[in-house]
Amino acid sequence: MNGAESVSKTVSLDFQSHLAELEAQGLLVRIDRPINKDTELHPLVRCQFIGGIAEDDRRAFLFTNVVDSAGRRYDMPVAVGAFAASPRIYGLGIGRTLEDIGADWLNAIKNPITPVTVTAPPCQEIIITGDELKRPGGGLAALPVPVSTPGFDAAPYLTATLCITADPDSGVRNIGTYRAALKSTNRLGVRMSSRIGGAGGYLHWCKYRDRGERMPCAIVIGAAPVVMYTGPEKLAIDQDELSVAGALAGTAIRTARGVTVDLEVPADAEIVIEGLIDTDLLEPEGPFGESNGYVALEDFNMSMEVTAITHRRAPVFASMISQVSPSESSVIKKLALEPLFLNHLREHLSLKSALRVVMHEPLSNLRPIIFVQFANNTPKSEIWRGLQGTAARQADSGKMVIAVSEDIEPEHTDAVMWSLAYRCNPIEDVHIEPYRSGGHSPKSGPAHADSTLLIDATLKYPMAPLALPGREYMERAQTLWRELGLPALTPRSPWYGYSMGDWNDIWQDFARNAVAGEWSKNGENTWQRRRGGLTPETPARLVETEKKPNK
After folding, report:
1. pLDDT level of residue 459 (50, 70, 90 thresholds)
2. What is the pTM of this model?
């Protein structure tokens, strides 16, 4: 079966037709009243992830009357949750039933369809370059970029991104979903992970750094879901994500040459931000809420000069709920990663007795805790080979791997705990393996190698804040939720962010500036603090004396 045979007739090849389909099927909530992007927008959508709303009842949101803390009104709507607020929405976007998603992902990876280049693409109907990018209130400031974790984030962040770079030697393209902070009207702070071997974009950056050249980059906002879903899945470095997306869609994805960078971008995207990333000087980026449940504090990361912003004549800005899981980001990863892990066990390791792989989602965010279900009577040697194989598949996944029998539902954590209590003799059935990378973990506390399987999870030293909006913003969001007549909430702790000790006045001032719409002050501060000779993600406090941000 090829990609074209398995694709649904309802798959959307551009973002706005996907939104229309969501609305037609009752999966989108349209909000027409004024909503503050800096203080209200993300907290409002966050309510459905932490308010006891059933997974299938979560919806996409379309905000048509977006304002900010400075009183500005934006003429561009903002969509949140439209890619994967729930598995139902993800399935509609990819054109599959949930039962088919795993097999079709594997088929698409094996049978890619090369993109086709077009001219006069919709994503370049409006082109903004030159002095227009530097105009006060213009450039990036004209985009309705929300503050994701008000109370802690230092700036509005691009979250639902596809960051396109290319290997300067081979020309092979890489597309990753990386965060980007607004620093000025024509500058972004971009984080492409250098941990765990390095993201594809980071590896390209290293090559450009060795050449002494800036790295071209195109950041895509609002691509078709089948394109968007490839970014977070961490495909092989030499695997072209757009070709995989074409196989998922059953047809070649249309691309177009960038206006100011020599990169191919999805022609039907809503917005494309083109630019050049400095490979000499890095600047502090963050704080920003992370998917591990803690706020990522300041690191030195990449600085991108924006050379063009292109978009459709009437675009919709796409944002994504990430940070604390469950989230839109975790749903996108989970639905593809679980079958890919199971395929690794069954096909690469020939463990046919492995029945299911379930990645624990709430708070822990998929990667650290994985449950593997085995058929009854599986030999002990095979169970242990499966446990080790799961932990070894990805360096940032499988810190704790638990095997259960086929009568235990892996997604039911109470059942897993029952199995641990009565089916596990720790002296025989628990192994701890040293020398594991810390992976995608918070950076508070001492740096050290991690281990696999067991760890004391109590708070033993000050840690970064919980990456949810502060209490006042979540209380306001719940008031808005009730006023809008949305389904009753039953919040469970934790439902708001709070400090755990590793938080200073600088970052608190950054957060206040962000929710006041004065994030550019933070960009002015970090611009003055740029340094050379550093590796991306070097914690700022390791190399500088703390300074107060400019007032």
Report:
1. very low
2. 0.80
